[in-house]
Design brief:
single chain, mainly alpha, globular
Length: 248
Amino acid sequence: MPAEDPVWNLLDVLAILGFAIFSLAIVGGVAVSLAHSLPAFRSVKPIDLTQNPLVLVPAQAVAYLLVIAFMVLIVRLRHRAAFLTSISWNWPPPDKILRAIGGAVGLALSSAIFTLFTSRWVPKSLPIERVFHDTTTVYLFALFGIIFAPLVEELFFRGFLYPVLTRGIGVVASVILTSASFAVLHQGQLAHAWVPLTWLLMVGIVLTLVRVKTRSVALCVIVHLAYNTTLFTMLFIGTQGFHHLERA
């Protein structure tokens, strides 16, 4: 297998990360200001609006779109290269897509089993659970988790971070470091609890290995999307259409 040799360097990856943090802060602030000007939210404190999914999730979606645009600019303007070719998008054939979806469904079902057997070591309340307090916000979060999160996270971790790491430290170390970084991204949602973070580390390893074996970021996105979709489908069924969230 040929060695990875992306046109960008680690400084470019750090620039993308910095831009993402900046975008989330700025767009989030604008979203809070706009929401506070609306009659429905005028009586809500701005600090409380920063935790409101109806404000937070759309703002994060807009910020993610800006991050994608910045990624494209890095590749096309700074390095004068074709974006999809450079990140190894490489759209897979239908048979690989079907196998990937099947594997993602199996991984999501394994997640449910893992959660069942390790629930005693998970905190009773996690920050992520704040989203699951009414049907509307769960639908909104599901939409974000199925469309925006898989695309942007795979572009960053498997598209940009992994290849630049493997050029410097080799495949094995890059798989571990990329997967660990992926898990750390979600630690705030999980109260830094080691059990769910361990599972996310394993999911990250699977996604990175897909990238290693197929050199296709597109397939990584498909696996991630199918995995998230299966999780939300199981939640939808278990809560009777997100109407009985106390069962989650």
